[in-house]
Specification:
Length: 402
């Protein structure tokens, strides 16, 4: 399922490093910057793919690596343990459990292989400490809690291994909550009993709860059930594009009133109408699926898939969103929630920004700082958007840990 959503709107060749004003560049370099939703670990398991090398969209469709993080001034973020939604059979649940554990191991092995460049972060204060050492900090998050269905106690193990954010659900209903985009409609009318128990367990452990992808009812119930503020790690504004995956203004205000943070998504399909056709989607799926199922197992295969992808884009073109579209969502949400409750979670390597002119990969991030500066936001407010607000919530969650 993720292979259908992820990488869905790739269109441009690799962008040059963002050219911004000297003032904006200096500010961006001063700030501690994080992105709350990076799907980059899908690449970690591909043979021969090295995060210490500079990659490009036209060769392997990737958006994040260590050189480009440096070029784009991104100090770190939340790297995702993602599992495709699947069946509820015991066999499928075991497969989901094992997949998440394998992805966790792959991330930890990648960090161990690059100790001079990457470091695992466990507490909110670790981000600044690691960045000061010249390395990129890596927090761990889970998107889709299905790997915990057979044994919710596995959450304790994942926490001990570094997990600090838990996303309950993805594009289909699961054992814990309804999704905002399940074609079958609601199953639990919000949270399941197991979902409520999982939130309580996360509260006890000191894990942030992520409600991106959750249905409105699940969001409402989780907001009430959690003892700590919740997070939306990559979500945009329904007022600007009426997609079920986006959040309406009333709920954005409710999130802020409870102290939470919404991290704004750059996924083009949530910023504006994709105008996609079944033929286009089938062609894109054929080219991108191997990145998600692990069969893009050589540089040559990845190049051939990238070539096929760009051919599909030429054969089935769609209107492209821009940095302006992303900024409209960001500025609207800041106005609704208040500057203290907004951040950035672009969904890079999960299709975020890829079809958006001016936001194609992580090197474009200084452009956002330049836009925020031009809008008149103070340095402290911009620092909040780039991670300070989310880290404040993380400190609250840490303090509430039993």
């Amino acid at each position: 399922m993720k292979r259908t959503l992820a990488l869905l709107l790739l269109f441009a060749a690799a962008p040059a490093v963002a050219q911004v004003s000297p003032e904006a560049h200096a500010l961006h370099e001063r700030l501690l910057t994080l992105d709350s939703h990076l799907d980059t670990p899908v690449y970690f398991s591909l043979p021969g793919w090295n995060p210490a090398q500079r990659h490009a969209l036209e060769t392997d469709l990737s958006q994040v690596d260590i050189p480009r993080m440096r070029e784009g001034g991104l100090d770190g973020g939340f790297f995702v343990i993602y599992t495709d939604p699947g069946e509820r059979t015991p066999e499928a649940q075991r497969a989901a459990r094992d997949h998440a554990l394998a992805r966790l191991v792959t991330i930890r092995e990648t960090l161990a292989a690059h100790p001079d460049d990457l470091a695992l972060a466990l507490r909110a204060d670790d981000a600044a400490r690691i960045a000061a050492s010249g390395r990129r900090f890596v927090y761990l998050s889970m998107e889709n809690a299905s790997p915990l269905a057979l044994d919710p106690g596995l959450l304790d193990f994942h926490y001990r291994q570094g997990l600090r954010m838990l996303g309950l659900v993805h594009v289909q209903n699961n054992e814990f909550a309804d999704s905002s985009t399940d074609k079958a409609g609601p199953e639990w009318n919000g949270l399941s009993p197991a979902g409520r128990d999982l939130i309580a367990r996360a509260n006890r452990l000191g894990l942030m709860i992520d409600l991106s992808h959750a249905s409105d009812a699940a969001f409402d119930q989780a907001l009430e059930a959690s003892r700590t503020p919740i997070v939306l790690s990559h979500t945009s504004a329904k007022a600007l594009y009426d997609h079920p995956r986006n959040l309406d203004d009333a709920r954005i205000r409710a999130l802020a009133e409870k102290g939470g943070v919404i991290q704004v998504n750059a996924y083009p399909g949530y910023l504006a109408d994709e105008h996609k056709s079944p033929e286009r989607q089938a062609a894109i799926d054929a080219a991108t699926g191997p990145f998600w199922d692990g069969s893009a197992d050589s540089a040559e295969k990845r190049q051939a898939l990238a070539d096929a992808y760009f051919k599909a884009q030429r054969d089935f073109p769609v209107p492209r969103t821009t940095l302006d579209d992303f900024m409209r969502h960001l500025l609207h949400i800041i106005e609704v929630a208040g500057p203290e409750h907004v951040g950035l979670g672009a969904d890079f390597d999960g299709a975020g920004g890829l079809a958006s002119v001016g936001l194609e990969d992580v090197t474009a991030l200084p452009r956002i700082t330049e836009r925020l500066l031009a809008e008149g936001f103070s340095e402290s407010q911009i620092a909040g958007f780039w991670g300070g607000n989310l880290l404040r919530v993380m400190r609250q969650v840490e303090a509430a840990r039993e």
